[in-house]
From TrEMBL:
Taxonomic placement: Bacteria, Pseudomonadati, Pseudomonadota, Betaproteobacteria, Burkholderiales
Protein name per Swiss-Prot or TrEMBL: HTH araC/xylS-type domain-containing protein
Highest taxon in the source lineage: Bacteria
The keyword Transcription regulation is assigned to this record: yes
Domain named HTH araC/xylS-type: residues: 188-289
Entry-linked PROSITE patterns: HTH_ARAC_FAMILY_1, HTH_ARAC_FAMILY_2
Stored Gene3D superfamilies: Homeodomain-like
Length: 297
């Protein structure tokens, strides 16, 4: 997708069905579009950042999808159109779908719609008005793929941003706060990543943000309403893992320092202080008592 259409995507099938896709498209100097048939999958931001991809303008023809970007979540059905900026964090969940997609240069569309980022991940109906004109145009582009000259393709590339802008003119940018379901999805991704990387002593909000393509500021915002801040939750979880290992007879041969370092602590003094503060006893005293009680039983 990046090579042919200058748009970076990370696509993954689900566990029940092997991923499959069929692509028919046109990739010229300025005009790029494609018909894509996908099996159930998720699509998200590419791991490689700094890549200035084109905007994805996707006309849904079959199937249903949920698109997420900039704190918005929208259900997309047949004859709906949506826009995604692949250079910013996004997430798409889809079943079996057929999409007719345009890949539009950022600058070309932003010159006409300066607030384009307010229109991403939003439903644009194409059954009437300018949306219907755009839908017929996209369908005809695919029908004429093999008959376009280079000059015709360049002229169409000039016209398409204006058609897209006209389709957006009948809708109002949605500036509502992020829906709870999207926030829950992001929190689930964050906590899953943390649990998988708990042993990494360098993990912090910036590290997590880079790994899952969210901003550091947004990650902090997600946990503002929690009783325990994110980094404190990470420390508590590490302490719980250490406490379990210290109480395990199977871990008797491992030193307290080894256990602490294994679970991401890189300062044994700091670990001992945090352990005592949380559990009211030193790691050494806790271990001695726990192993004695286990032996007695």
């Amino acid at each position: 997708m990046q090579d042919a259409f200058a748009v970076g995507l990370s696509v993954q099938g689900n566990q029940e069905h092997p991923f499959s896709t069929q692509v028919k498209g046109y990739s010229g100097e300025r005009l790029r579009f494609a018909a894509l048939r996908f099996s159930p999958h998720t699509t998200c931001s590419p791991r490689a950042t700094g890549l200035r991809s084109r905007l994805l303008v996707s006309l849904h023809r079959e199937g249903v999808a949920l698109v997420h970007q900039e704190g918005r979540e929208t259900r997309i059905e047949p004859d709906d159109l949506f826009i995604i900026d692949p250079s910013r964090p996004f997430f798409i969940e889809a079943g079996n779908v057929l999409a007719h997609s345009l890949y539009i240069e950022h600058s070309a569309l932003r010159a006409i719609v300066p607030e384009i980022e307010l229109h991403t991940a939003r439903q644009v109906r194409t059954t009437y008005g300018a949306g219907a004109v755009l839908r017929h145009t996209i369908d005809q582009l695919l029908a004429q793929t093999d008959r376009l000259s280079d000059l015709e393709a360049d002229r169409l590339a000039d016209a398409l941003p204006f058609l897209i802008a006209a389709s957006l003119a009948g809708t109002s940018p949605d500036t509502r706060p992020p829906p709870s379901r999207l926030r829950a999805l992001h929190k689930q991704r964050i906590m899953g990543y943390v649990k998988d990387n708990l042993r990494n002593h360098e993990i912090d909000a910036a590290h997590i943000a880079a790994a899952i393509n969210l901003s550091t500021r947004y990650i902090y915002e997600l946990f503002e309403d929690e009783d325990v801040p994110l980094m404190k939750w990470i420390w508590q979880t590490r302490l719980e893992r250490c406490r379990a290992d210290l109480a395990s007879a199977a871990m008797r041969s491992r030193s307290i320092g080894e256990i602490a370092f294994y679970w991401g602590f890189n300062d044994i003094t700091h670990f001992s202080r945090a352990f005592r503060q949380r559990y009211g006893v030193s790691p050494r005293a806790f271990r001695k008592t726990a192993l004695s009680q286990a032996a007695a039983h």
